[in-house]
Sequence to fold (259 residues):
Amino acid sequence: MKLSCQHVAVSIGGHRVVRGLNLEFNAGEVWGLLGCNGSGKTTLLNTLAALSEPDAGSVLINGKNVHEMPRHELARQLGLLQQHTSYVFDATVLQSALIGRHPYLGYWQQESSSDIELARSALKEAGLLELDNRNVTSLSGGEARRLAFATIQVQDPAFMLLDEPSNHLDLHHQNQLMHLVQSATNRGDKLAIAALHDVNLAARYCSHVLLLYGDGEFEAGTCAALLDSARLSRLYHHKVGEAQTAHGVLFYSEPSAGG
Fold:
């Protein structure tokens, strides 16, 4: 399973943020998409998900252009967790999780017992099983975020595109979610690309990173090769320090001048 970018270029408001992206993402990998605000992380994820057209180039899934694939087929291959999660219609947590099975159902077909069991398993992993009958409009921001990710798991796509998956999550649930992402790809049949603001989550859970510098330039490679204080300081326009710990390197923000 392979997601490829061929000469991809994307812009925000006429400003080119990604230029000439030639990159291959493979099953078994977790990519961290890093960059400062406005560097094009969400725009690029939406382009990979075929929600927006690139300015140039093409995005391919196993050699097929994503913009030419039937939506039903694309939904079986690719799942997108958008940056913000909001539930405004009455439904239970379990009913919402089962939306992930819709790409596999025919017209008027209902979810099977195995679909329901899959949804309950995903809710259990997300720590939401005891809330399965709760109305989604009553969920906290963090609970809603975990439900949205559980729905992606129920969808069971080969490619998971996650836009700031740790939004609204406390420290425990940030690590729990990223552990689930890492575990899903460890089987070798899934790929995850996650836009992250926490560099240390990327360092801990990602195998690769794509650094977007915001001016069209980028760097892509393994975390071991690219995550260092010099590159991160350039990436975020802010001095970043690093410290070696028993659990690996830890990155931190240096105080700004004058405070």
Q: What stands out?
A: The chain is about 30% helix and 30% strand. The chain has a mean pLDDT of 95. The domain at 2-227 is CATH 3.40.50.300 (Rossmann fold). The first helix runs from residue 41 to 48.
